[in-house]
Amino acid sequence: GESVGLHLPTLSVQEGDNSIINCAYSNSASDYFIWYKQESGKGPQFIIDIRSNMDKRQGQRVTVLLNKTVKHLSLQIAATQPGDSAVYFCAENLDTGFQKLVFGTGTRLLVSP
Amino acid sequence: EAQVTQNPRYLITVTGKKLTVTCSQNMNHEYMSWYRQDPGLGLRQIYYSMNVEVTDKGDVPEGYKVSRKEKRNFPLILESPSPNQTSLYFCASSYLPSTDTQYFGPGTRLTVL
């Protein structure tokens, strides 16, 4: 498969554990944040998003937390499964009137059976 | 099926030989964008288009051209490829003007010798 990063931070967990992936964003004026999942050989896939007027949003097995005070975003995955193994990116939308995403470099999640 | 398609998926070429990577979306999205992905650098935007005949430079446009003659297609053109353009390229699309999710294509792995 394609390598998206040779020296990515890596989080290794056991199947069934909860995973927390962190992201620091750069611009305090960013108004929209997205988490993407990228599996080997594929393009980034949308997981969940959150707008700056919220501090928490839940999806199916995933929760995103936003702390604007310290410009920090986290993705929590409940009951992590081997199929969750991938590289996870956060992206922030700079408030330029249209979508201008700035992506983080990503975290590799490895889930052991 | 809603999707973004890219062709070719893999390409090996030589310095100076013009090439085009095609991108097509079937979701009637107005906004389309090209990114390159390099180890340790994350996704960086090359060019974007807000609608037909409206294109603009992203963060790393040097050495690339684009066109948007039809809403669904957004080809990336390398007039004279160089080895530093060896990378993994992604096309993406989304609705405008809202901050909506960008949908990514499967990627094109380009190697310039």
What structural class is derived from the secondary structure elements of chain A?
mainly beta
Number of strands of chain B: 11
CA-CA gap between termini of chain A? 20 Å
Ends apart, CA distance between termini of chain B: 36 Å
Oligomer: heterodimer
Low-pLDDT windows of residues of chain B: none
User: If you average the pLDDT of chain A, what whole number results?
Assistant: 89
Envelope shape of chain A:
globular
The helix/strand series of chain A, from N terminus to C terminus, equals EEEEEEEEEE
Structural shape of chain B: globular
Q: Count of helices of chain B?
A: 0
Strand content of chain B: over 45%
Q: Which key phrases capture this entry?
A:
heterodimer; A: 113 residues; mainly beta; six-stranded mixed beta sheet; four-stranded antiparallel beta sheet; disordered N terminus; B: 113 residues; 0% helix
Write the layout of secondary structure elements.
The complex is a heterodimer of chains A (113) and B (113).
Chain A: E1 10-14, E2 19-24, E3 32-38, E4 45-51, E5 56-58, E6 62-67, E7 72-77, E8 86-93, E9 101-103, E10 107-112
Parallel strand pairs in A: 1-10
Antiparallel strand pairs in A: 2-7, 3-4, 3-8, 5-6, 6-7, 8-9, 8-10
Chain B: E1 4-7, E2 10-13, E3 19-25, E4 31-38, E5 42-51, E6 54-57, E7 65-66, E8 76-78, E9 87-94, E10 103-104, E11 108-112
Parallel strand pairs in B: 2-11
Antiparallel strand pairs in B: 1-3, 3-8, 4-5, 4-9, 5-6, 7-8, 9-10, 9-11
Q: Could you explain how this protein is built, in words?
A:
The complex is a heterodimer of chains A (113) and B (113). By secondary structure, chain A is mostly beta strands. Chain A has strands at 10-14, 19-24, 32-38, 45-51, 56-58, 62-67, 72-77, 86-93, 101-103, 107-112. In chain B, strands 2, 4, 5, 6, 9, 10 and 11 form a 7-stranded mixed beta sheet that branches. In chain B, a hairpin with a 3-residue loop joins strand 4 (31-38) and strand 5. Chain B is globular. The chains are: A mainly beta (113), B mainly beta (113). Chain A binds chain B through residues 2-7, 31-32, 34, 36, 41-46, 49, 51, 89, 91, 93, 97-101, 103-106, and chain B through 4, 31, 37, 39-45, 50, 88, 90, 92, 94, 96-97, 99-107, 109.
